[in-house]
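Notebook entry, structure prediction.
Reason for the run: the old model in the group folder had no record of what sequence produced it. Starting over properly, with the input documented here first.
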Amino acid sequence: MKKMLVLPVLLLFLLSGCKIENKSPQSARDDNYGVNQGSNYSCESSGDTQTIGTSLARTGNGDDVITNLAFKKGPVVITLTYNGTAKFTVKLLDSDGEIIAILVDRTGSYTGKVVVQIPKDADNYIVSVISEGAWQVATTKADEKGDN
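New structure, fully documented this time:
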């Protein structure tokens, strides 16, 4: 009887040292967004501290998720191009998965620019692309009026 009691107590002792945090760091959550799967995008800096992390150029074909985009607070111009006949949807989300903006949601080819107001600095934003054709996403920092 004593041996049967020792095993559950020992197991409980070992498991009590394991701590599972609800608010894990971004790197632990990245697995949910397909990070490190051979992406071909670039985030380049122009050297200006006001625009670091705001430049993105990415092309693809089909669905994709672009992560770890650290935009600065303020307006950003996002240029979108899609060549296809199916539905094309692009969303900007924050690191918690909350939608900041639906950039485009239409059927058929599309070329256009969207100005998005980034709500805060130092957040890892996510761009979600849903398509069945070739697409391109590029960003530039806009001035305070929303022009680039």
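Summary: Confidence is low (pLDDT under 50) at residues 23-52.
The old model has been moved to the deprecated folder.
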